[in-house]
Write a structure and sequence with these properties.
The chain is mostly helical and 411 residues long. The protein is built from 14 helices and 8 strands. The strands form 3 sheets. A 3-stranded antiparallel β-sheet has the order 2-1-8. Strands 5-6-7 form a 3-stranded antiparallel β-sheet, with no helix packed on it. A hairpin with a 4-residue loop joins strand 3 and strand 4. The chain binds glycine.
Length: 411
């Protein structure tokens, strides 16, 4: 009798184990991000832009001014040149539209000219090659894309100063502005190309370079409240940190919103690549500094500390960059409640960006309105800008893929 009970108990446990393995994935709460509809909207806007810009000149759409509905076009040498091909690759990935793939191939190939030795380039080579060629390679596995992206990483790596331990951002203003070895927060984004190259047959040293850049930036380019200095200036020869200043923010001591978003995205990536918990704990602080300063709709003003007068434009590009970063951070978090809160915050950002107030809709062929490019220099204020659109479609794509994979941070 006893033996029979034990057998029944064992069978019961086995049955529960088998049944639970077959349970459907947890039903994630839907917080109102209609990713299918949002990606369909992006596809519609991409087709509109393609009809308007043609594809015979290697000029790329960059921005649309507040009062206009016409794209300002730019050349492959502009720092934003990777975003348009990147948008096309993400759109092809979600829509499957072969005509978009052809356009993505065309514009991506245009950027190979950045390897021309006559073009010196700067840290932006990371943005340029990663968004275009690395996305192209991820989607097509065509070795041509890999080969060009690896050559792009080689060129980017030439700006690394081993004495300082970071990449020089703007060689052209080293002397002009008296900023010797300058490293801007945006440069954290460009580490993705180096990490990718080190993992894909490029120089393995690039992993060390990227990690060094992140570590030195972590040490010097943040205040005690975890807000960032846009620009760090170092002594080129001794490598010593000299000062933190701004270029695109309101003041040297203010927190430029896109800079903080670049930092959150960049340090999330560094944690993804290194799995060093020090970076995870650090990026949690950066995210807290950003999230606690947000207005009610989760789309920041262009600078968290800029005064309200005479006007204080928003910056959807910071919101899109941060939403994309927080989705990845949520998937990497080791603390369940933080993972859930990052996911929820990213959903609120995406919901806001997809609302009528922030979307171009019929008004313009870009995705989003209300981005601020460079307010101190007086351009692209309250505009539509290609990098806001790029990180918006990337965030939607990440959201879709994570949900499809069963990721669900609900407690
Ligand atoms: N990387 C330049 C900017 O964020 O405006």
């Amino acid at each position: 009798m006893k033996t029979r009970n034990v057998i029944f108990q064992i069978l019961g446990v086995v049955c529960i184990m088998l049944c639970s393995c077959n349970l459907p994935a947890k039903d994630c709460k839907d917080e109102g991000v209609d990713v299918v509809a949002d990606l369909a909207y992006c596809h519609k806007q991409v087709k509109r832009t393609l009809q308007l810009v043609g594809n015979d000149s290697c000029l790329l759409p960059r921005s649309i001014n507040t009062l206009s509905d016409q794209w300002n076009m730019t050349s492959v040498y502009d720092w934003t040149s990777g975003f348009w091909p990147g948008i096309l690759w993400y759109d092809y990935e979600s829509s499957g539209d072969e005509s978009v793939k052809k356009e993505a191939e065309y514009y991506t190939a245009c950027l190979a000219d950045l390897l021309n030795p006559e073009h010196k380039g700067d840290h932006d080579l990371g943005f340029q090659f990663f968004c275009s060629f690395v996305n192209a390679y991820r989607i097509t596995a065509d070795p041509y894309y890999k080969q060009v992206a690896l050559a792009g990483a080689d060129k980017l790596a030439t700006f690394f100063n081993p004495k300082v331990g970071t990449i020089l951002s703007w060689a052209h203003i080293e002397k002009e502005k008296g900023w010797p070895h300058n490293t801007i927060m945006d440069n954290m984004m460009n580490l993705d190309l180096l990490f990718w190259a080190a993992r894909n047959g490029g120089n393995p040293e690039y992993y060390r370079m990227a990690e060094s850049h992140a570590r030195v930036t972590m040490q010097h380019q943040f205040r005690s409240d975890y807000t960032n200095y846009h620009v760090a200036i170092y002594d080129t020869v001794s490598g010593d940190f000299i000062k933190g200043i701004t270029n695109q923010g309101y003041s040297d001591e203010s927190c430029w919103a896109r800079g903080q978003a670049w930092a959150i995205y960049g340090f999330t990536m560094v944690y993804r690549e290194t799995r060093n918990k020090e970076y995870l704990r650090f990026v949690e602080k950066l995210a807290e500094a950003y999230l606690t300063r947000l207005p009610a709709d989760y789309v920041p003003y262009w600078d968290f500390d800029a005064p309200d007068v005479p006007e204080r434009p928003k910056d959807v590009s910071a919101a899109a960059v941060c939403a994309s970063a927080l989705l990845e951070l949520s998937s990497l978090e080791d603390d369940e409640s933080m993972a859930e809160s990052y996911w929820r915050s990213a959903e609120r950002m995406l919901r806001a960006l997809s609302s009528d107030y922030y979307r171009c809709g019929e008004r313009k062929p870009a995705f989003l309105l209300h981005a601020t490019g460079n307010l101190p220099a007086g351009y692209e204020i309250d505009a539509s800008i290609n990098y806001a659109d790029y990180y918006y479609i990337e965030a939607l794509h990440r959201y879709k893929i994570l949900k499809q994979s069963g990721f669900c941070p609900d407690k």
